Amino acid sequence: MSHSEAGTLAIRHLSKQYEVEGRPLAVLQDISLDIAPGEFVSIVGTSGCGKSTLLRLIVGLEAGFDGHLLLDGRPIAGTGLERGIVFQEHRLFPWLTVQDNVALGLINAPLTESQKARQVADHIALVGLRGFERAWPHQLSGGMSQRVAIARALVSRPEVLLLDEPFGALDAMTRAHLQQELQRIWQAEGITTVLVTHDVEEAVFLGDRVVVMAPRPGRIQRVVPVPLAHPRRRADPAFVRIKDAVLAEFAGPAEAVAVAEGDAALVA
């Protein structure tokens, strides 16, 4: 996919509230953000800042909001093949093989059976699972299952890929490996990508920009650019400086530096 085929997302003065025991509860307040074709934007924030709600609104799983959500200048209404999503839990169907789980992403696609089979095979290869087409979900590790979920989200060639803490349930080694794999896939596909995560290092490793959200109601506190070439090195001083800048948004600067030094000690 070229950047000309990737989606342009425009979020304009987006607010969202729920009704709780008869009273309105503001979840998102006046969110405005433009995401360019092919850009990778990471959204970080503490629990309750509305970051997952924002993703669900973009994918069309929730409605009833104030403001505007536009994809290529058109209002988003309901789910569609042009937006793929990966959740923290892989949500594979245990009674379907890997290739049949991936093929679910093409159920509504206007393609012939042979075209569908080719796209399924291509995307299983893209996520590094060639040879596992006929495996069952119970035969896969957690990391492999998430690769299948990513292939399913990408198989319809969406304009936008949405990722809701996709590696949050995985161990640190698997997570670091899949972050590298996701970065490779993003570069190969040229797709507009929005990642929601609570992991600041993951956000900086992958994102062109990191959007820091403040909670209750969720709003954008700061947008931190990440002007570093890929592949990124987590121990690179420039990388650490950007990570510290993001961490500082969650705490006083002294606390943030202490957290960053603790991270460095874990890596050393």
Automatic annotation (TrEMBL):
<dbReference type="InterPro" id="IPR003593">
    <property type="entry name" value="AAA+_ATPase"/>
</dbReference>
<keyword id="KW-1003">Cell membrane</keyword>
<dbReference type="GO" id="GO:0005524">
    <property type="term" value="F:ATP binding"/>
</dbReference>
<dbReference type="InterPro" id="IPR003439">
    <property type="entry name" value="ABC_transporter-like_ATP-bd"/>
</dbReference>
<dbReference type="InterPro" id="IPR017871">
    <property type="entry name" value="ABC_transporter-like_CS"/>
</dbReference>
<comment type="similarity">
    <text>Belongs to the ABC transporter superfamily.</text>
</comment>
<dbReference type="Pfam" id="PF00005">
    <property type="entry name" value="ABC_tran"/>
</dbReference>
<keyword id="KW-0813">Transport</keyword>
<keyword id="KW-0067">ATP-binding</keyword>
<dbReference type="GO" id="GO:0016887">
    <property type="term" value="F:ATP hydrolysis activity"/>
</dbReference>
<feature type="domain" description="ABC transporter">
    <location>
        <begin position="9"/>
        <end position="242"/>
    </location>
</feature>
<dbReference type="InterPro" id="IPR027417">
    <property type="entry name" value="P-loop_NTPase"/>
</dbReference>
<dbReference type="InterPro" id="IPR050166">
    <property type="entry name" value="ABC_transporter_ATP-bind"/>
</dbReference>
<keyword id="KW-0547">Nucleotide-binding</keyword>
<keyword id="KW-0472">Membrane</keyword>
<protein>
    <submittedName>
        <fullName>Sulfonate ABC transporter ATP-binding protein</fullName>
    </submittedName>
</protein>
